[in-house]
UniProtKB/TrEMBL annotation:
This is DNA primase. Its EC number is 2.7.7.101. InterPro entries: DNA_heli_DnaB-like_N_sf, DNA_helicase_N/primase_C, DNA_primase_core_N_sf, DNA_primase_DnaB-bd, DNA_primase_DnaG, DNA_primase_Znf_CHC2, DnaG_bac, DNAG_N. Keywords: DNA replication, DNA-binding, DNA-directed RNA polymerase, Magnesium, Metal-binding, Nucleotidyltransferase, Primosome, Transcription, Transferase, Zinc, Zinc-finger. Binds 1 zinc ion per monomer. One of its GO terms (molecular function) is nucleotidyltransferase activity. The keyword Zinc-finger applies. Contains an N-terminal zinc-binding domain, a central core domain that contains the primase activity, and a C-terminal DnaB-binding domain. Monomer. Interacts with DnaB.
Length: 597
């Protein structure tokens, strides 16, 4: 059983952390009025419906209904238990919990089997790094890196290490620390021999680059050969903790810089990221030996508005940059492309031309997406040839037709007309013809816009119950007064009744009125969402006796209406059975009920 955390510790944590800062690590937030809005991380959307209130320390999505406080946010987005979320927040706030057992583990968000795999990776990462920088065995590898332009600072920052030319160093070390070889084989660290029960190291005599997930857990390695060994790079296989399609290398270190600059630089591989970081480009990330995926884009979109692509200048790199730029642009991100000189990658350029020139002439002078596409469509064409020239013009017109801004369209049309001595009117006519033959835009297609909360029309009794709960969570005296006025009657909405039942139990334990603390007390996620939605209502903090009486009247009147409907049905049933005496009695009861309104 997880160790219980004292209430005073939870209050200390809640007061020490700012919900906007915590959620801001996962969601790109913009302030609108008193609250912050962004794209909901719990469901796909193009217009921001996810709201965070710093005043109330509550979040709520008006689209999918997700809601709660800072604890429940981490529980939902990282799959943590309450104790694990509290441990993570305590670590952020430098608050000592002194817990033992599961809640004390660093890798809180991982299931037990995955924790063992991560712990093994963490152990080897530290040993590999130690072997590189502190031992005679790692001296040749260290000099190799230094000669290639790596600095001790970058070696330490990225925890680069060295795997000994041994067949069983990792196997022996891990077994001594209590890790089962069969589990380590599943983790991709060791390999079982065919027709044998013995194991050997996957990585031998290689410079080791650890791969960390977005929370900073070591989940894989890439080992680089120093000589002519093949393959040049040996990577961890896909495992239950390592999925290449979901991981962006260096994201955990770059996230702060990405958010500060509101821009990410996307590289092809981790070597480019490390070189660029050494040159002062600290917002660089890379996909792990795979094409850009929807998961990568979703992660970027939650954190940034603009992405600069900096891939190799060879044919494969340009094609990959073209695909990635289209995917990022389609997702609504602003895209620029840093054009590398022919035959060079970022690491080569920095070695030849220096760090400042890379920052200014490559990253700082990146091209707009349209300018990159103009260069892309020129490749392999002889524009002196009529056929190639017409094909190029058609491809460019196709791209211009997709531009949203009239000024951009005019700029590139004039550029095209001037370059090939064409009539601007002719190009405009061809562009319009292309529009007419394209599929028309659906009339009801939603347009991105600033979020405005939808007003949901609820019955009077429903709204009254929500407002009562809002005030009951802020004032225990109001809560008990509502209980007295209800006189044993229940609220009409089951979730509302469940919430006030928990609320009275909360007050009976002598907790102070605090909606955010009450959210921690609630165990039911559905009820947490309802409370978070209620919390987002814009109401006055104070409530008069007349308002209270009016809300109670709405709640009770609905119950009377239901009773009248029930009695009316009974009356008709009695009349059908020719039981006129019973029908008359019921009619009298209905009259008495109506008098109580």
């Amino acid at each position: 059983m997880a160790e219980r955390i004292a209430e005073e510790k939870l209050n200390e944590i809640r007061q020490a952390v700012e919900i906007v800062d915590v959620i801001g690590e996962y969601v790109q937030l913009k302030k609108q009025g008193r609250n912050y809005f962004g794209l909901c991380p719990f469901h796909g959307e193009n217009s921001p419906s996810f709201s965070v209130s710093p005043d109330k320390q509550i979040y709520h999505c008006f689209g999918c209904g997700a809601g709660g406080n800072v604890f429940s946010f981490l529980m939902e987005i990282d799959g943590l238990s309450f104790q694990e979320a509290a441990g993570k927040l305590a670590e952020m706030a430098n608050i000592e919990l002194n817990l033992e057992g599961p809640a004390a583990s660093k890798n809180l968000q991982l299931p037990e089997g995955s924790k063992q795999m991560v712990d093994a990776h963490e152990l080897l990462r530290k040993f590999y790094h130690h072997l590189l920088v502190n031992t005679k065995e790692g001296q040749d590898a260290l000099e190799y890196l230094l000669n290639r332009g790596f600095t001790r600072e970058s070696i330490d920052r990225f925890q680069i290490g060295f795997a000994l030319p041994s067949w069983d160093f990792a196997v022996t070390l891990l077994e001594k620390r209590g890790f089962l070889p069969e589990v380590m084989a599943k983790a991709g660290l060791v390999i079982q021999k065919e027709n044998d029960e013995t194991y050997f190291d996957r990585f031998r005599n290689r410079i080791m680059f650890p791969i960390l997930d977005h929370q900073g857990n070591t989940i894989a390695f890439s080992g680089r050969a120093m000589g002519t060994d093949e393959p040049k790079y040996l990577n961890s296989p896909e495992t239950q903790i390592f999925h290449k399609s979901k991981i962006l290398y260096n994201f955990h270190l770059a996230r702060g810089s990405i958010r500060k600059q509101q821009q990410a630089v996307l590289f092809e591989g981790f070597a480019d990221v490390i070189s660029a970081n050494r040159a002062g480009v600290e917002n660089g990330v890379a996909s792990m030996g795979t094409s850009l995926t929807d998961d990568h884009i979703s992660l970027l979109k939650r954190n940034v508005q603009a992405v600069t692509i900096c891939y190799d200048s060879d044919k494969a790199g340009i094609e990959a940059a073209f695909r990635a730029s289209n995917m990022l642009s389609k997702a609504g991100l602003a895209v620029r492309v840093a054009i590398m000189p022919d035959g060079m990658d970022p690491d080569d350029f920095i070695k030849v031309h220096g760090e400042e020139k890379f920052r200014n002439d490559i990253i700082g002078s990146s091209s707009t997406l349209m300018a990159f596409k103009l260069l892309y469509y020129r490749r392999g064409k002889n524009l002196q040839n009529e056929g190639d020239r017409l094909q190029y013009i058609e491809e460019v017109l196709k791209e211009i037709s997709r531009l949203d801004k009239a000024v951009e369209k005019d700029l590139y049309l004039r550029q095209l007309a001037n370059e090939f001595s064409l009539s601007l009117d002719a190009l405009m006519q061809q562009l319009n013809e292309r529009k007419q033959t394209s599929a028309p835009r659906k009339q009801n297609q939603p347009k991105p816009a600033a979020y405005t909360r939808k007003t949901e029309l609820r019955p009077a009794y429903h709204t009254a119950e929500r407002r009562l709960i809002y005030h009951m969570m802020r004032n225990a005296d109001v809560a008990y007064k509502v209980q007295e006025l209800l006189a044993g009657s229940m609220m009409n909405i089951d979730e509302h009744q469940a919430i006030i039942t928990y609320l009275f139990a909360y007050y009976e334990k002598e907790h102070d009125p605090d909606p955010s603390a009450f959210l921690n007390y609630l165990q039911d996620n559905k009820l947490k969402r309802v409370v978070a939605d209620i919390e987002m209502m814009a109401l006055n903090e104070e409530i008069s006796d007349q308002e209270l009486a009016d809300y109670i009247k709405q709640v009770l009147n609905y119950q009377k209406m239901l009773k009248i409907k029930e009695k009316t049905a009974e009356q008709k049933q009695a009349e059908r059975q020719n039981d006129f005496l019973r029908a008359a009695t019921i009619a009298t009861e209905i009259i008495q009920l109506r008098k109580t309104f």
